[in-house]
């Protein structure tokens, strides 16, 4: 009897296939196989990086079946997909995350150990992909984790920067920036899809013509084009079969262009043009909270937006005849205004390339897009010079003018006599130079607008976007941020996770509210002791890291008082420094004074062009040098600046923190997400009523939160009444002593000029109101010190904090987006019967 062979497509993948099998033996064999065939190395010649790569491929293989099945299920069932457009995705290392999501951590540990290696060392070899600046980029990564875990069809869409956020070194106390060559050894997690490349146009001009029906149409004749190549990275959900893609675009020169130039013998010109195109995805702009109005930045934004929208349209048209029902298959979320040019690009594609009339195109656009705002600071709102915009994207500028014309016609009807309203709502800012206001474009082109914490959304409604709120209150939503408990608790704090699971089972990992069940153990002294020991172990590990990297010995029994985040004046790292100097002065006055021993730990990058932020880093290190070496201090205070804070360093720091510093000037921090990671890992918060701190305090209970400082409202009022920082200086003896020490050159080897720009700013302007909050902060820190001396009281409070953070799981945030903004439902992925066991 002859049997027909299965076609390639139908060829089943078997359980113990070396690429899917999950037994320790199979994993070991696959690991060795990948070392030989993919790294091309004998074991005896392999480097730790080779071993890491071989292990990464072993895991990627095990994600592929689920990944392809996920894609197939989405296409076949014609499901609605969320496209999360973001200029940044700060994913963190993939290997550890894949191990926990595939439930193979222990087996891989065994396989690696039996191969004579150490898993922790291999995990440390993975470069941390730094394709983002801070909170906004990391939020995008947490959202992708939650989307996959909740089985929501979703694609992350962004740029594949060849160089991510710079590597920070500290030299003589100053920040030095080193390029981040994260792709040096290749990237085992991505798959290039050159077959799905698209063309992106730039520059040139537009012309009118008549189409076959005699209608006026516009054609864009670009001056240059670039090619976008997609690279897909798998994003596995926890405890599901879903593996969604993160699709990042790399820019390449278009062949046609090179060909013409080469043929004309213009080799130099062709090469220059090639370089120009490839520059688009070369490097991430390292600014946080202040956009840079550079042409290349706009090119980056348009490039990934155009690639993404062409891709979305292609995928929709695989299943549908027209784009009129795009909103039924597609929800597009704009992560801040960086991708907001998508509104104009969608209109262009529909009008010019798919023959839509204006009203239909506008309806499709508005029903598909939604916009998240991440900042209140006016200087952080993106705007592009009309000249630059029109030069780079002439057709889009025409479209934006037309959107604006129609929009302002409506506004005139609604508010006939309000010129101010018209001027404020306009997509174009008038003046000696005209600008396109990207937030206005995003608001007009979206059906939903949201802030990222309750206070932030309120302030958007009352202030930053108040005119839009007036005309469209129904478009506004609050979506308080969250973080994924898989990376930020399970992976970062395995001991604490084990303790939870031993008491209440594993349910908390997908439903963080369940952690409240742990409250039942609060009276159990043994439980509290276990908790305390875990914290101590985590602190010991961080102390080892500090010793290794900074050569500073710190005491794990001291309070680890931590501030890690981007360095920015509004975040007020320098307020924490004023506290350190206050304590130091007290010790100098009376060396026998009783102080609660503290280790102050800082970490964070300054934007390379942000002088004051760089000076803050220098100040921290200068104070550290004095305090750490003064015999009077007797080691009771230590100050440490950890270089190159990033996601993987965060994973070491959050679990070891006792005190989380969330001390921004009220009304400035949109949400914050580090605050959530600290609290989930059992750190107490000292904070202002800013961003999500307010909601953290609500959840933890007022009695379990160290509150200080002016409220956003008070900040506004004190400023309006004419804030004079020098009055605080003259009236507050301790503050005066701190400032006098700072200006005396005591921390700068006698150099009185070094910190003058900062001390002058405090004394004369103090835009972030450090002086106004100083006394309240110092008093609050006194309370912190007192409670910390009562170890048991502290542990109780820390436990309550950690287990009451259920609200801040990004799963909750994503569920709200799904229900209220995107209108999407989970789509479970079924694996073939014979692969169930390998799930
Ligand atoms: C941050 N923004 C907010 N922007 O500052 C923070 O409060 C919030 O928790 C977080 O977003 C998530 O919602 C932020 O990180 C940037 O880094 C931009 C990068 C590109 C240039 C402009 C700032």
TrEMBL record:
This is Alpha-1,4 glucan phosphorylase. Its EC number is 2.4.1.1. Phosphorylase is an important allosteric enzyme in carbohydrate metabolism. Enzymes from different sources differ in their regulatory mechanisms and in their natural substrates. However, all known phosphorylases share catalytic and structural properties. Allosteric enzyme that catalyzes the rate-limiting step in glycogen catabolism, the phosphorolytic cleavage of glycogen to produce glucose-1-phosphate, and plays a central role in maintaining cellular and organismal glucose homeostasis. InterPro entries: Glycg_phsphrylas, Glyco_trans_35, Pyridoxal_P_attach_site. GO terms for molecular function: 1,4-alpha-oligoglucan phosphorylase activity. Its cofactor is pyridoxal 5'-phosphate. Belongs to the glycogen phosphorylase family. The keyword Transferase applies. It comes from the Bacteria. Pfam families: Phosphorylase (PF00343). Keywords: Carbohydrate metabolism, Glycosyltransferase, Pyridoxal phosphate, Transferase. Coiled coil: none annotated. It catalyses: [(1->4)-alpha-D-glucosyl](n) + phosphate = [(1->4)-alpha-D-glucosyl](n-1) + alpha-D-glucose 1-phosphate.
């Amino acid at each position: 009897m002859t049997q027909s062979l299965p076609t390639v497509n139908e060829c089943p993948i078997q359980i113990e296939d070396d690429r899917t099998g999950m037994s320790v033996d199979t994993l070991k064999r696959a690991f060795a196989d990948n070392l030989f065939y993919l790294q091309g190395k004998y074991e005896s010649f392999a480097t730790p990086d080779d071993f890491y790569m071989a292990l990464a491929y072993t895991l990627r293989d095990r994600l592929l079946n689920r990944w392809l099945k996920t894609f197939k299920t989405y296409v076949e069932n014609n499901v609605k997909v969320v496209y999360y457009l973001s200029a940044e995705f700060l994913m963190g290392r993939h290997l550890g995350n894949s191990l926990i999501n595939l439930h193979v951590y222990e087996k891989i540990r065994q396989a690696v150990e039996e191969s004579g290696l150490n898993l922790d060392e291999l995990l440390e070899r993975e470069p941390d992909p730094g394709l983002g600046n801070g909170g906004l980029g990391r939020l995008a990564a947490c959202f992708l984790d939650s989307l996959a875990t909740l089985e929501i069809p979703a694609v992350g869409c962004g740029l594949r920067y060849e160089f991510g956020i710079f590597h920070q070194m500290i030299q003589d106390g100053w920040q030095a920036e080193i390029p981040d060559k994260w792709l040096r050894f290749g990237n085992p997690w991505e798959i290039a899809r050159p077959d799905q490349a698209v063309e992106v146009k730039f520059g040139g001009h537009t012309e009118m013509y008549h189409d076959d029906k005699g209608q006026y149409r516009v054609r864009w004749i670009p001056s240059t084009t670039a090619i976008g190549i997609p690279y897909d990275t798998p994003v596995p959900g926890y405890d599901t079969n879903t593996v969604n893609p993160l699709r990042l675009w790399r820019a390449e020169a278009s062949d046609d262009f090179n060909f013409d130039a080469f043929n004309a013998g213009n080799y130099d010109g062709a090469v220059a043009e090639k370089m120009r195109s490839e520059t688009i995805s070369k490097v991430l702009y390292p600014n946080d909270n202040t956009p840079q109005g550079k042409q290349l930045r706009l090119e980056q934004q348009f490039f990934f937006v155009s690639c993404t929208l062409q891709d979305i349209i292609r995928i929709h048209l695989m299943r549908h005849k027209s784009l009129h029902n795009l909103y039924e298959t597609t929800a597009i979320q704009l992560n801040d205004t960086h991708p907001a040019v998508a509104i104009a690009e969608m209109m262009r594609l529909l009008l010019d390339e798919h023959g839509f009339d204006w009203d239909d195109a506008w309806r499709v656009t508005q029903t598909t897009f939604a916009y998240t705002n991440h900042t209140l600071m006016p200087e952080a709102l993106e705007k592009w010079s009309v000249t630059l915009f029109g030069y780079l994207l002439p057709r889009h500028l025409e479209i934006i003018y037309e959107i604006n014309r129609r929009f302002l016609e409506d506004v005139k009807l609604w508010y006939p006599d309000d010129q101010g309203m018209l001027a404020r709502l306009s997509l174009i800012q008038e003046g000696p130079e005209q600008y396109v206001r990207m937030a206005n474009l995003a608001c007009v082109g979206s059906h939903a607008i949201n802030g990222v914490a309750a206070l932030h959304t309120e302030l958007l409604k009352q202030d930053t976007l108040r005119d839009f709120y007036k005309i469209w209150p129904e478009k506004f939503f609050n979506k308080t941020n969250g973080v994924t408990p898989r990376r930020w608790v399970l992976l970062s704090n395995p001991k604490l996770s084990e303790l939870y699971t031993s008491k209440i089972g594993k349910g908390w990992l997908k439903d963080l509210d369940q952690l409240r069940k742990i409250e039942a153990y609060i009276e159990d002294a043994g439980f509290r002791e276990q908790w305390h020991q875990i914290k101590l172990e985590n602190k010991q590990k961080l102390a080892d890291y500090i010793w290794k990297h900074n050569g500073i010995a710190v005491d794990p029994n001291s309070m680890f008082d931590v501030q890690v985040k981007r360095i920015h004046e509004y975040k007020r790292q320098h307020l924490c420094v004023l506290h350190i100097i206050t304590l130091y002065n007290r010790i100098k006055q009376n060396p026998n004074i009783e102080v609660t021993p503290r280790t102050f730990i800082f970490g964070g990058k300054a934007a390379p062009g942000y002088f004051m932020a760089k000076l803050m880093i220098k100040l921290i290190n200068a104070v550290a040098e004095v305090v750490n070496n003064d015999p009077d201090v007797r080691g009771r205070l230590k100050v440490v600046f950890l270089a190159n804070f990033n996601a993987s360093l965060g994973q070491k720091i959050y679990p070891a923190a006792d005190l989380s510093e969330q001390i921004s000037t009220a009304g400035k921090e949109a949400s914050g997400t580090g605050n959530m990671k600290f609290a989930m890992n059992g750190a107490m918060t000292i904070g202002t009523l800013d961003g999500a701190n307010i909601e953290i305090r609500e959840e933890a209970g007022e009695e379990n939160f160290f509150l200080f400082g002016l409220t956003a409202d008070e900040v506004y009022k004190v400023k309006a009444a004419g804030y004079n920082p020098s009055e605080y200086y003259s009236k507050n003896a301790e503050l005066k002593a701190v400032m006098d020490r700072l200006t005396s050159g005591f921390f700068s080897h006698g150099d009185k000029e070094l910190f003058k720009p900062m001390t002058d700013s405090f004394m004369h302007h103090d835009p972030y109101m450090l002086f106004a909050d100083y006394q309240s902060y110092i008093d609050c820190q006194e309370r912190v010190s007192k409670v910390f001396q009562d170890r048991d009281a502290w542990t109780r409070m820390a436990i309550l904090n950690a287990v009451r953070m259920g609200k801040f799981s990004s799963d909750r945030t994503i569920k709200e987006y799904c229900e209220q903004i995107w209108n999407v439902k989970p789509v479970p992925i079924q694996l073939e019967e014979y692969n169930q066991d390998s799930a």
